[in-house]
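Worked Example 4.2. Consider the chain below.
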Amino acid sequence: DFRVFGSFGVESYLGQVILLERNSIQYVIEGLAGSRYVAVRYMDCRGCQKLFVSVHFPHSDNSDECFSSAVFDLCKLLHQWPGICTVVGGDWNVQPGESRFAELLQMLSERGFQIQLPPSPTWHGRHTDKTFDYFFVSPQFVERLTPHPDPITTSIHPEAAREIRSDHDLVTMNAAVNATHDSGSGQRRRPKQKPRVKNFVAKWQVSCDDLKAAWSVGQCMISRPSVLVLSGRSSVSSRGDALTGGAPLSMSTRLR
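Applying the procedure from the previous section yields the following structure tokens:
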């Protein structure tokens, strides 16, 4: 059961869509759209504010000015919400080593974002393969990672591309994120000490075993054309979240 946010007004093929699993959220704050992205800002079931962004950037046959405009448009969005957990992912249509990638990386790294690249190319043409689909995560997201040896991993699932006859592989990102209850402002609150029953989207109850585990798993899937799916399971609340774009947390990204 999902909440659906999308727009046909963006400059990408067939528009873009983000799906939020209902049980992973308290409430949605707002949906946003730019020239090359759609985004949703929401409060998760642990009281953490999150922003997930799905992008589809200009192809190589578009001008450099068109690509720079898309970077600037995304920059304006991220500038509005500098202090919350943010995941940005999708089809960037540029791979590491290219001049356009340097422009994109500079903008995001200046804001503390870290890139999460898949282990192999994600786009397959007739005569070449390229890495077009990947994630960026904000410093607030990184701060919530557990001290796991590999808190973030990315994987590719080529069977999904064959099923839907896509030139993009399914890309997943899994992240182990602390399930600390916070307001999303960058300041963590002390974890709750007693099991409680709450009513958000649905009723859920925290057990002592769950509190001891204190971690959750979520998924974020982003696809071309433009589908970002956020879902998961949580041992502390009803469902986890990803990227995404969204705790010990896990994210999956589907890119078509």
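The CA atoms of residues 53 and 60 lie 21 Å apart. The two ends are 22 Å apart (CA to CA). Compare this with Example 4.1 before moving on.
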